[in-house]
Write the structure tokens for this entry.
Amino acid sequence: MKVDIIIQNAHILTMEGQGVGFIENGSIAIKGNRIHDIGSFDEIKASYEGERVIDATNKLVMPGFIDAHIHTGIAIFRGVAQDMSNWMQKGLWPFMKHLTPEESAKGSMVNIIEGLKSGTTTFCDYDGRMDLIVENYKKIGARARVAELVNEIPDNVGDLPVGELYPFDPSIGNTKLKRNLDLFNTHHESENGRISVILGPHGPDMMSLELLKEIKGHGERLDTKLHMHVAQGDREIDQMIKRYGKRSIDFLEEQGLLNERLIAVHLTEATNEEAARVAESGAGMIYCSGSIGIIDGLVPPVFHFMESGGTACLGSDQAPGNNCNNMFNEMKFSAILNKVKMADPKVFNATRALRMATIEAAKVMGIDQEIGSLKKGKKADMIIINLQDPSFFPVLTKPIRNIVPNLVYSARGHEVETTIIDGQVIMENRKLLTIDETAAITEAQKAAENISSRAEKDILSAESDILDMVKEGLL
């Protein structure tokens, strides 16, 4: 039988079963946008002829990574708010207040390029003006599960004194919810199913109970997930106690929002008991180790969440917090930080981290029937990694196999050579085939410089830690 692509002679991680589903000297047959068959080299060779054959000798083939929580719209502010207190007010806000939607979309494209080149094939993007950003995914050929960030917070919220109760503006909430619903109606299951849409309530502290209930109703009507920050920091908990007299998770449970429809992001300030209740409710969790580690210096209770039976996955969050939208970084950070937190080198092993960036992420996002593992009938989303890079040396397959530990603890992302999404080769020999990478970066760089120029007065008046470091010659 003739198929479009055969990848042969590869080490394969299918991510099927409880582990990583390792196949030595395996092959994959791709027809259209799906995996037609997968097995040993001899099995595939005997049954299929490929229009194109890719020799993957000394290479690893595995599912593309799923970045379950990313704000690509603020990628244009990478590196402006690190190593500091009051990250939002003093670091990010002086820049954010000068950002236009068009500039946000330009920076977003560079963030997507960064992710693609380090093995991410599915981006669960969660940001404002997703109607503009989604066009980047259509153009570049990546898979995306997007949500508009819905809140009722005025644009000048960053100027409020720390600790003051947020003012809510219903007109803002109505506009943003309409954009999310329009996004769903216009783009859900578009591009042959490559683009899908869910709902994006910003957080329980960022909107009125009335708007949150309305979003809950739309989620039930559309039978879709709610991607939401939950207990994401002490500011949120403070706002919730001041407004409702209770913490976030108690509030969500009381309002009927703690269930399998909820995707709870961060849980930074959740107690172990609260994390267990979220897990037991059926809600999923997204852990952003690099971002929360850098911004808050904390390790959320993800280990306890999983030990309580919950399904958790990984996200890179945003460039001005994490600095690195690269799932190799998230896997390594997640494993190491939890080993340190638990004072146990055996916990949070490499296999767990790898599953959280692939099949477990697909489960949390509600798309595991289509992606997240390499299986006959699933979408053909996969990456080919060069095992002859020094970061993988040596490659051993018996009596032990060290490919997975090296993938998580040693690899950095540049080892990804080829990316296939929906059966299409998007990157080959590390060259993107769908867009002009240099032109996209050049355009976004100009936009970033323009924002910085417009924002100079606000940046200087913020008197942030990072500005002090510049003055002292430390940066």
Notes: The mean pLDDT is 95.
